Amino acid sequence: MDEFEIIRRYFARESSGEGIRVGIGDDGAVLIPSRDCDLISVVDTLVSGIHFPETLAPADIGYRAVAVNLSDIAAMGARPRWMTLALTLANAEPVWLDGFARGLFEAADEHALALVGGDTTRGEQTVISVQIIADVDTGKAMLRAGAQPGDAIYVTGTVGDAAAGLSILQSGLPRSDDVDYLIRQFTRPAARIEAGAAIASIAHAAIDLSDGLYADLEKLLLASGVAGSLELADIPLSSQLTNLMHEDDALRFALAGGDDYELCFTASAAEDKIADIGESAGVAITRLGQVLEGSGLKCTRNGDEYDYQDAGYRHFN
Amino acid sequence: MDEFEIIRRYFARESSGEGIRVGIGDDGAVLIPSRDCDLISVVDTLVSGIHFPETLAPADIGYRAVAVNLSDIAAMGARPRWMTLALTLANAEPVWLDGFARGLFEAADEHALALVGGDTTRGEQTVISVQIIADVDTGKAMLRAGAQPGDAIYVTGTVGDAAAGLSILQSGLPRSDDVDYLIRQFTRPAARIEAGAAIASIAHAAIDLSDGLYADLEKLLLASGVAGSLELADIPLSSQLTNLMHEDDALRFALAGGDDYELCFTASAAEDKIADIGESAGVAITRLGQVLEGSGLKCTRNGDEYDYQDAGYRHFN
Q1: DSSP run (H or E) holding B240
Q2: How many structural domains does chain A have?
Q3: Does residue B301 sit in the same domain as residue B157?
Q4: Is residue B189 a contact partner of residue B67, using CB atoms and an 8 Å limit?
């Protein structure tokens, strides 16, 4: 099976998405942008054995590869439009490719995202780069910069679940409903596209949680040139997580674990307005900190200073 | 050196390009599209040891990674705008990264192409995916489909040089001016952006030559639903190539070698108009065949039928 056959068999679906003049099969895709919009361009790579266990189901790998990119789009309050795939494989196994493509299209179809091109190559290890182009009303993209002293800090959903799920996958804890829930947060992360679009009207700054709550919130504060405080007791933890482990361990996954793909943002809007936005987007929004003047991120736990040393996920360390 | 440090030190230049609201450093880049344009999206991956020798100079690798993508943009007659880079590395060597970034920006700067985002990851082997967004006047992109019976088939520049250069790099032929010239066609391929834009007004169909003249012309004919004939004696070969080898070997590199990144196109315009376009774009344009009714690509050599068996480059064979 050569690269053209792989593309034809697994990836060249009829492109039904809006805004596509020419999809897969020419030198490049020809796309029709919406008027009065900025474009958002993101790319994220998953490497086998680094970003996911080699034994992960191919459909989960395909789903994740799209979802982690959609999460960046969500963090800017944008609408995903078109996707390309750069896929490097050690060998072209039909069963793997079939599952991978199924998961990839599942994640894409949830947000009317169209695959419009790609490149399939051979290598020693599976490397998956997905690139997404999105759009957003001109000048309306949410950025990391913009947080203001006095803003409250919020997060969508619960944090720590995906990192705990990955840890469980690797350690092989016996399966249970709680365990299955956590694993699923790692294998099938929900990109907060609707929530991102909904909070865009009130958020001063936003980021998605890929490297851990502490590290990502630090990045937002640094980009905004402000300081922040984080109350550990307010971090939203799922019952599935706290059923399985001591709160200290749950907090460790939440702060440093990464892979949550929830949104963290700052705003000065009234609490009931924030709650309404969460309700309309179908996700809980929790206040867990405050933006301050200065620089750095300090933690408290039940009001007492808490000396947290971050060990968030970083490549090449 | 972690991924953020790599990006900061080697890739996060001040984005001075037009149409960039936010460049590297946020969840995604925010770009301002031109009015009345279609977008072109392309992606191409280079894998170490597959698409280039592991010993190739890092600056050449960086240059090539951009140039092969620019070539796809050229084949559509479009203007390159924004680029993202997905870079997977076994280790982060400063000397390699410095050279790679230098070559990458050299190729980008030749066409005012701005790097606006990327992802740096760790893996067993170097894998480089570059993605470029370009624009072209609405509805004016050159496609592979559109060749019409009666069209002449043209190619820019000379073909076979890059494949011969790669072969020489691998076999270690003694250096000479001719040898250096051919190697440079592989290490520093010139994307035909200006020629692509110039021929867009008269070409019925176009493709860039990445997999070899025969295989790529076959793709163009197939996409257009037509047949073609190719006269081997008319294939433009460089004196550097024919100085070093018998014409039969030179033709083998030209037909099956790949990596030329010249443009092959069909048109029915007058010969002198074609010549004028080549002159204005600074590249020779050579007529080497004819579009016919039917399907398939037949070769002649000095007018006699020539039974050519293609072995163009394909992954996963």
Answers
A1: helix B239-244
A2: 2
A3: yes
A4: yes
* Chain A residues in contact with B124 (beta carbon < 8 A): 124-125
Let me know if residue A157 belongs to a domain.
yes
Structure tokens at A9: 């068999």
CATH number at A233 reads 3.90.650.10
Q: What is the pLDDT of residue B7?
A: 83
Name B119's bridge partners: B86
In-domain check, residue B225: yes
- Kindly tell me if the per-residue pLDDT of A302 is higher than 70: yes
CB contact under 8 A, A22 and B73: no
Evaluate whether B190 touches B106 at the Cβ level (below 8 Å): no
Contact, B94 vs B136, CB < 8 A?
Answer: no
Give the mean model confidence (pLDDT) for residues A166-173.
87
ipTM: 0.93
| Domain final position from A80, A111, A137 | A137
Beta partners for residue B266, in sequence order: B153, B205
| Domain enclosing residue B36, as ranges | 3-137
| pLDDT reported for residue B312 | 56
Those residues of chain B that have pLDDT short of 70 are 14-17, 311-317
Residues A118 and A232 both lie in one domain: no
pLDDT in tens, A31-86: 999 999 999 999 999 999 999 998 899 999 999 999 999 999 999 999 999 999 99
The pLDDT value recorded for residue B315 is 44
Shared domain for A167 and A295, answered yes or no, is: yes
On whether residue B146 sits in a domain, the answer given is no
B-contacting residues in A 212-241 (Cβ below 8 Å): 223
Of B105, B137, B169, which one is at a domain's C-terminal end?
A: B137
Q: Is B133 within 8 Å of chain A by CB?
A: yes
What integer pLDDT is reported at residue A317 of this predicted model?
33
Q: Which chain A residues contact residue B44 at CB under 8 A?
A: 86, 119
Confidence tier at A258 by pLDDT (50, 70, 90)? confident
pLDDT tens for B239-289 read 999 999 999 999 999 999 889 999 999 999 999 999 999 999 999 999 999
**B298 shares a domain with B158:** yes
In this structure, chain B runs to a length of: 317
User: Hey, which residues 137-176 in chain A have their CB within 8 Å of chain B?
Assistant: 138-139, 141, 143-145
> What residues in A contact B84, CB-CB < 8 Å?
41-43, 131
Q: What is the pLDDT of residue A316?
A: 43
Please give the Cα distance from B62 to B189 (Å, whole number): 12
Cα–Cα distances in angstroms (integers) from residue A150 to residues A155, A227, A228, A270, B141, in the given order: 16, 10, 10, 12, 50
- In terms of domains, do B235 and B271 share one? yes
Residue A187 lies in a domain: yes
Task: Please spell the DSSP secondary structure of B290-303, one letter per residue.
Answer: EEESSSEEEEEETT
State which H helix or E strand residue A65 sits in. Answer: helix A58-75
Of the candidates B297, B285, B286, the one whose C-alpha atom is nearest the C-alpha of residue B229 is B297
- The mean pLDDT of chain A is 93
Q: Are residues B166 and B290 in the same domain?
A: yes
Same domain for B210 and B131, yes or no, is: no
Contact call for B122 and A25, based on CB within 8 A: no
